[in-house]
Amino acid sequence: MNLRSIVPFLILMFLSFSRSENERFKHYKPLGMTQEIEVFYLTWSDTNLPNFIKTSDYRTYVNKTELIDHCFYVDSKNPEKRKFKIPVTTDKLIKKIPLKLKGKFYKTKQFDDTFPTPLFEDLRKTGDLKFKTENDEFLVFVLD
Description:
alpha+beta
């Protein structure tokens, strides 16, 4: 096999990978500008629920059912940042460790089959998620 036939193939592979990686963000609609927010990380018995909430919203809604309405997912276009994990040792809210994150809020009606969990998009499509969103839109904070 000569170099002439390999180069177009490699370019095509690279472009298809780039397109598929950006494909998952084409449904994200921006809400405002880049900002730094302070968040708490929440854990739930249902792993499909969003895990982040601004500390100010947490303080306002801590004992109210509307708490879930103010929670959001954290995503990133950088695959390495997307893998970050919060050290959680119990199923309780980590009250003493707020995190500062820099990025931008987005709304989306769909994710892909890898974010936020491998089964999430299937559950969303079938209506089997344990929580409902307004207008079927999910709030996502995309890290810079």
